[in-house]
Amino acid sequence: MVTMTDLLSGTAPTTEESPFRPTTAAALGAVVAVVLGLTICIGTAVVGWVAGGRGSLPGAVRAGADAWLLGHGAGLQTGSVHITVVPLGLLLILGAIVWKVAGHVARTAALDGGRSVLAATATMAGCYAALATLVAVLAATEQVSVSALRALVGSLLVAAVFGGAALARGAGLARGAGEGSPPLPGLPGHLRAVLRGAGAVVVALVGAGALLTTASLLADFAQAATVAESLDTGVVGGSVFTLVQALLLPNAALLGLSYLIGPGFAFGTGTLVAPAGVTLGQVPAVPLLAALPAAGATPWWAMGLLGAPVLAGALGAAISLRPLPSPSVVVAALRGGLTGMVGGAAAGLLTGLGGGAVGPGRMADVGALVWECAGVAAVGAAIGGALAGPCVGLVRRRWSR
């Protein structure tokens, strides 16, 4: 059996070890990942309690546990307020913890094949989800409760996605056996190229959404600072409030992406924020919301943002066609169009991760128009990829002469 010391020390296993060692190490890794994540969240809450002097220590511990659960998509229910939005910054931090621990498990357990990786992934995800469900039950009070079912499903997905990817990478399944072998060696070369280009489309569009959000926030920075000063939260409260907003920046970037694509997003029931026009009601006094455009008609240049999916599709086509020495016009157009369509649809679907209920009443409806974003982005990026593909092939043929 593996001890906790073995897991953390990085000592390589011997050949006489039990065949159940990978699953045992994965179970211990799940415990370590949960403890680390809870320590960060609870520690931050306790520091805030000590500095602020409000509430009680058990209350601070429960608040940290609730934050950890919220990062897994468990949601919070307090009175009539139902919060389902997932702070994506916190989710990424928790996912990074699982990734690092799972990578260490892969090295210490000497995973040697697909079956051992699947067994370790299932064990780690199951143990992680079971512990998250237990935390959800223990942290619930009459005033604040979380959904144990959502905690189970969300934590299972976090552990399976981040942990499984790290275990597969540590076992060498993400690449071929040889040094410099291509990623995903089980897939045909043309499919790998399309996926690589589609990934570039997603990265380009998400990055563009983040840039748009950052530019909007900087343009209205004075308004954001005024709102922050009016809250008068003090040093400790202001620090905690700033941290919460920082954890929500990835959510804001995805909402910015939905605006960039065209369909936009709702920020309250009956509202719409899109390049075609902005309809907004009263919004909460939060500095981050200074990035929202003013209600009414948008500037003329806002419609030019709709070309982002086309440009991203062209970039994806160039990357997906790189392995082909001299593709024909038809092949280049088809591969470029397919790459753009897959990447655009994936980026559009990602916008759904940025929303969720953030308060009572009309604030229960916050988020992108996901299916519209996926469809528009897929079409726009496919057009860009199909048009750019033959151009890329022509340029490469001329340079090869």
What does this structure look like?
- The chain is mainly alpha-helical and about 400 residues long.
- The protein is about 65% helix and about 5% strand.
- It contains 13 helices and seven strands.
- The strands form three sheets. A three-stranded antiparallel beta sheet has the order 2-1-3. Strands 4-7 form a two-stranded antiparallel sheet.
- Strand 5 and strand 6 form a beta hairpin.
- Helix 2 (about 20-50) packs antiparallel against helix 4 (about 90-110), helix 4 (about 90-110) packs across helix 6 (about 150-170) and helix 11 packs across helix 13 (about 370-400).
- The longest helix is centred in the N-terminal third of the chain and has 32 residues, at about 20-50.
- Residues about 1-20 and about 175-180 have low confidence and may be disordered.
Q: Please estimate the helix content.
A: 55-70%
Describe the sheet with the most strands: 3 strands, antiparallel
Widest β-sheet, arrangement of strands: 2-1-3
Distance between the termini: 63 Å
Low-confidence stretches: 1-20, 176-181
Q: What is the N-to-C succession of helices and strands?
A: HHHEEHHEHHHHHEEEHHEH
Total beta strand runs: 7
CA-based shape? flat
Strand content: under 5%
Class from secondary-structure proportions: mainly alpha
By DSSP (H or I, 4+ residues per run), the number of helices equals 13
What Rg, in angstroms, do the CA atoms define? Answer: 24 Å
Mean pLDDT: 84
